[in-house]
Amino acid sequence: MLHTAVAMPSQSVLPAHAxxxxxxxxxxxxxxxxxxxxxxxxxxxxxxxxxxxxxxxxGRYEQExxxxxxxxxxxxxxxxFHRNQLNELVSFLSYYGVKKDRLKLVEHENFDPEExxxxxxxxxxxxxxxxxxxxYAVAPCKEGxxxxxxxxxxxxxxxxxxxxxxxxxxxxxxxxxxxxxxDFVIGKDGKPARVSAVYPQPEKQLYSxxxxxxxxxxxxxxxxxxxxxxxxxxxKRWRVVNTLEVLRLxxxxxxxxxxxxCDAEETPHQDLPMDPYTLGYLLGNxxxxxxxxxxxxxxxxxxxxxxxxxxxxMYMARGTRYNHYIRHRGREGxxxxxxxxxxxxxxxxxxxxxxxxxxxxxxxxxxxSLLQGLFDSDGTVQxxxxxxxxxxxxxxxxxxxxxxxSLGGIAAIRPRQTHYTHNGVKLPGQICYDVDVRMRNxxxxxxxxxxxxxxxxxxxxxxxxxxxxxxxxxxxTGLSQCITVENDDHQFVVKDFIVTHNTFVSxxxxxxxxxxxxxxxxxxxxxxxxxxxxxxxxxxxxxxWCIRGSADFKSMINVAKEGGEVPPVIIVSSATYTNxxxxxxxxxxxxxxxxxxxxxxxxxxxxxxxxxxxxVHMDFHRNFRIDLYTHIPYTLSLxxxxxxxxxxxxxxxxxxxxxxxHPPEFEYDCFxxxxxxxxxxxxxxxxxxxxxxxxxxxxxxxESILKYKFLLEAYVDMIIDLVERMFIxxxxxxxxxxxxxxxxNMCTILSQKLQLxxxxxxxxxxxxxxxxxxxxxxxxxxxxxIGSGGTxxxxxxxxxxxxxxxxxxxxxxxxxxxxxRRLKDFPDVHPRYSMLxxxxxxxxxxxxxxKDEKFRGKVRSMRVTETHYKV
Length: 871
What we know:
Radius of gyration: 31 Å
CATH architecture of the largest domain: 3-Layer(aba) Sandwich
Shape: globular
């Protein structure tokens, strides 16, 4: 950590040494300086520090440096700052005597990236609101700034499903928008059910409901679900609720919410040209083509199963020790080769195999036989009894996932980077896709005794297997449709929603940019992005690298340095990337801790011309750090919003993406109602509210309230009563409220009181030490401070904000107001922003009068209400 105090040289004493400033695309590296300049650079670093409260004793907090938005080596021989701070840095040094003419500025030209073809496989065009963002993203960057842009696409009720979501019908799928009265859809019980009514819905907010095994569906807020929630009395655990209630339940302290799994769909027996078990085994361990049709297996049992199903005139011939070939006794061609050609799988290698569609739609018995062939060949049973299937073909992995789900199981795909050794060097191989499977009777997945016997059909989940809901998030505003089906539970089966909003925009940009791309994301998003990239562009096998961990990162660099083939897309976890930077920062040696590549040279070495960062706001400091070692022609970041309430963070946003580089803004949307609430103090002489330099301090005001028990009780009772009257009494499921205080102690007391009074709601305190997602984004009521409540994202359906802090600062006031957004699920409800003022405090009255000028032109209405509350 930097020293918190630095001796500043006087302007009359010029530093003895100048410095070299190497200017790269996204950063400035400062080296070759003397001790005086080093002290100045340390001070400039301190000014890039985010301060936060740290507890130093009972009830006492101090501000300390939490994060530094600058970099320096362990030996302090090199400092790094953002490229867009170059002029600020030069001016700072000049002010303290190091004039510009004593600085050596070295501009480093960027490299010319090679063109890469990204064949877009997504059939639909961008939506109207996406087009201008895509055009902005691919336009040339503004001169004089880092070549970096940010795209902020905001996401905009009826038991409705989006029109483009496929609904299961007998023998296939049909988009919800095409389902009509008298059609038949498949119910939860696996049986066809008649559609008795169809109700088209107007445009409304839709939600993506994500499940534990990766599947998802897009529905409206009022869509009904039969769910199981563990945190209730046993007889109440199964219930029917809407989507917004599911969102509330998964936000509770015990967020385990499940839905029923569908039963195996009852489909007619298909006239299949090849035995399903045989086809499954060929797809797993088989060789399909080049005049050689066979399998590789040490299990004689499996060879006997295949041979027993062969038609007359065909037989199994042994080749080498484990190779067995399917032969035909006649002179004409091998019938199985002809069948595989008709099915479209003949000649496919391991990374492009798939299950032909007619086999996906076979009867229950035929689908089980197909899976048994697949799992006897490439399935695994762990000692614990857990089951998985592995393939380097993403399509085959997804077909296995589809089959398991069609039979009432759970299947999640997990990509895994494989490696091989060449000339003693460990190199990245193809991505392997592991399909983790859970079924009520997992033994049915196998015929092979040595695997079947290891399964455990008596595990704790066998009889009560359910599918867990992991998230409910706003996806878009769109048309939807309700249907009523004629079965006992009125449920029907839908298919996964495929492409997310941000990924679609980024894929359009990648296709237009035509540059090798590195995607930097949190590790938990790698599986999703890998799957979406391969689907979007039809990439297979080694065309996408997943880099997690230092071993993968070093291997990637070695391949590039030795002239090996680097794929069009590299997906790297942000933590892995910063480990690479830390190796350089801590050691500052050419080998860079064994990585063998200087951070500034990484993208040139990999021939990567485009860097894509998703959800940049979620780990902004880490992504800022990566910028400080980046030299690349172009960067695009994706975010829901970049409007934080923290002044310092907003300043960092403006450094990375200066206003001059932003797309044109839209007209100000005035939709917030502002209310000033006046109350009285019984003992104003007890209130102290003067802080540093005798300026008004609301922290001091709250500390006075906290000091006297009778004041605190009356003050808390007033706020609780306001919360109940303004919000709880007429709250609709899904609507939320913020209460803003000055001190952590007040936040703690208010949250505990509300939790006791209203256990039916989820109330959380959110301050610097609390979890952001758990305590800020998802509760029904959030008690927070001005400094900690800045989110950088939209808090969905925030209907009420009660700010108990008297604010003078225009920026702080507008930042607090900015927490309130339009209510996407309640378009007819106008959010309200309310402020508390004490009549007896002169500054409160002054601030109340000044708010008219601060908010004019930015809100829908402003009014003052005089209350009878007395504290």
